[in-house]
């Protein structure tokens, strides 16, 4: 971990030196390409491929340069391979280019988000060697008066100025050597959390050559403020890098800041072994029932942010709005939407609810499907809940919607999950619980079909529950909302993360409708969840 006291610190100096060396290395590589033979990756007529820069974030413009094994002007394009058993090489849309007469090529294309994915260039029957990618995760931290940026809560002296230093390329995954590259000049926004748990901008600056930006604020006499930093979109120079945010930092103001800073407001949890996970596959309900042609498909494969529109589908509109009442955040990570309880997954400080709600592409009836996986890193606190639901568009943020269709509701790590409907209008709730559910481990699909005469729920491609109760079908236009639900008080929760690999929606116009499954039980409506 680099020093949190930057200014002219050794970390910042190292960054400047590394940046200068990288520029020199890039220039030498570029100068050598026309005159020197590229490394010989040929095997049975396989061409060459060099991708630069090697260290990059998702969506960053990369240069693909090389040469096919035979001369001649040819149309070429990229293909990807996920490097899993059974995967095949698949064409990358929008990557078409043409070689020179010698078979050489050089073009730019955004870096993929997914870890451990391979790309190659294809021209007719000719292919190049493949290159494996591992995009560096965007990582943003903020340090208050030089204190450890990993601290979820810090103390500041009353009525005095204090400094917030934002690191837009923080090295938070030190054991994996995943420090992201510095993007000097990138806009950094400092925000504070309002009383309704939304984020309000209080200042902006540009990242310097070390990726840092400093803000000076004045402390009140007493109280607390919750801050976060956002690094904004980079869309120039062929880049498609979406914005991302830091974890929230609680800043307490007191006449005795050293005492305040030394006392965490949360109970510490002893470190326990997390439950094991596996990589079992998931089956799509859309394929089993022939839905096809999605209205939208959010997949976050090329550096998109929460507010980026879907990249596939019949209606390419909609975005996600984030909400946090505690220590967590939701960001795009490894080609998915990641809900993370805290910067450091173990130790005290995990609390509150973190959620993302879609807006701008609602449907009254249709199908929705989510692919999800989860991880729990502690065992001695209270478990967060994972809640995947459909809510009427415009529903206020929070953990408990008065009207919702629950697509999946479970404690993270639990061996069961529930589906159902909540309706304040009907003063009723309906629920079915799937016991012995493998949803806690590996990739799994949760889906729902909402029609005028029924609602049916699916798990890994199979219909598991259904209801035809008219009072359970509100007829309101619906959007997805996904939440990591925790208590907002001082209760300590187990550090956790779950990720939504993709979110897709369809109309009812294609495929087979499903009206079979277990019946739901009925209960009285409760205003709390």
From TrEMBL:
<dbReference type="InterPro" id="IPR013320">
    <property type="entry name" value="ConA-like_dom_sf"/>
</dbReference>
<dbReference type="InterPro" id="IPR000757">
    <property type="entry name" value="Beta-glucanase-like"/>
</dbReference>
<keyword id="KW-0732">Signal</keyword>
<dbReference type="GO" id="GO:0004553">
    <property type="term" value="F:hydrolase activity, hydrolyzing O-glycosyl compounds"/>
</dbReference>
<dbReference type="GO" id="GO:0005975">
    <property type="term" value="P:carbohydrate metabolic process"/>
</dbReference>
<feature type="domain" description="GH16">
    <location>
        <begin position="268"/>
        <end position="511"/>
    </location>
</feature>
<feature type="signal peptide">
    <location>
        <begin position="1"/>
        <end position="37"/>
    </location>
</feature>
<protein>
    <recommendedName>
        <fullName>GH16 domain-containing protein</fullName>
    </recommendedName>
</protein>
């Amino acid at each position: 971990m680099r020093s949190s006291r930057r200014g002219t610190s050794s970390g910042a100096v190292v960054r400047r030196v590394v940046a200068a060396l990288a520029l020199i290395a890039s220039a030498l590589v570029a100068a050598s390409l026309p005159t020197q033979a590229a490394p010989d990756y040929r095997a049975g007529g396989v061409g060459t491929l060099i991708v630069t820069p090697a260290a990059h974030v998702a969506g960053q413009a990369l240069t693909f340069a090389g040469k096919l094994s035979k001369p001649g002007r040819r149309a070429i394009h990229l293909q990807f391979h996920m490097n899993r058993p059974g995967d095949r090489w698949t064409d990358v849309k929008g990557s078409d280019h043409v070689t020179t007469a010698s078979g050489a090529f050089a073009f730019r294309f955004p870096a993929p988000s997914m870890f451990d994915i391979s790309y190659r260039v294809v021209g007719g029957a000719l292919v190049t060697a493949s290159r494996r990618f591992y995009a560096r995760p965007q990582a943003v931290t903020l340090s208050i008066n030089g204190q450890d940026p990993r601290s979820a809560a810090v103390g500041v002296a009353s009525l005095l100025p204090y400094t917030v230093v934002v690191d837009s390329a923080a090295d938070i995954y030190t054991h994996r050597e995943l420090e992201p590259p510095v993007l000097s000049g990138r806009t950094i926004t400092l925000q504070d959390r309002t009383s309704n748990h939304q984020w309000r901008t209080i200042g902006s600056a540009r990242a310097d050559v070390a990726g840092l930006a400093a803000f000076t604020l004045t402390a009140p006499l007493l109280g607390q403020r919750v801050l976060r930093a956002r690094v904004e979109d980079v869309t120039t120079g062929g880049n498609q890098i979406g914005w991302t945010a830091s974890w929230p930092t609680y800043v307490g103001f007191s006449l005795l800041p050293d005492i305040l800073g030394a006392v965490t407001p949360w109970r510490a949890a002893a470190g326990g072994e997390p439950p094991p996970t596996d990589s079992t596959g998931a089956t799509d309900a859309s394929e089993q029932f022939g839905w096809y042609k999605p209205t939208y498909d959010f997949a976050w494969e090329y550096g998109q942010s929460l507010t980026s529109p879907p990249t596939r589908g019949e209606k390419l509109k909609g975005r996600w709005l984030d909400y946090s009442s505690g220590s967590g955040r939701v960001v795009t990570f490894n080609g998915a939407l990641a809900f993370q309880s805290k910067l450091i997954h173990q130790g005290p400080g995990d609390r509150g609810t973190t959620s993302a709600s879609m807006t701008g592409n609602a449907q009254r009836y249709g199908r929705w499907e989510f692919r999800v996986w989860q991880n729990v890193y502690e065992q001695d606190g209270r478990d967060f809940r994972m809640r995947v639901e459909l809510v009427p568009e415009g529903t206020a943020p929070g953990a408990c919607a008065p009207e919702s269709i629950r697509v999946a509701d479970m404690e993270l790590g639990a061996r069961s999950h529930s589906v159902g409907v909540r309706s304040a209008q009907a003063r009723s709730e309906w629920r079915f619980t799937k016991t012995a559910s493998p949803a806690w481990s590996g990739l799994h699909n949760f889906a729902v079909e909402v029609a005028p005469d029924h609602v049916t729920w699916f798990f890994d491609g199979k219909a598991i529950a259904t209801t035809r109760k008219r009072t359970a079908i509100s007829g309101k236009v619906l959007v997805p909302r996904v939440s990591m639900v925790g208590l907002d008080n001082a209760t300590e929760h187990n550090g956790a993360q779950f990720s939504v690999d993709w979110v897709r929606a369809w109309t009812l116009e294609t495929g087979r409708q499903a009206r079979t499954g277990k019946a739901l039980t009925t209960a009285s409506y409760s205003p709390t969840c």
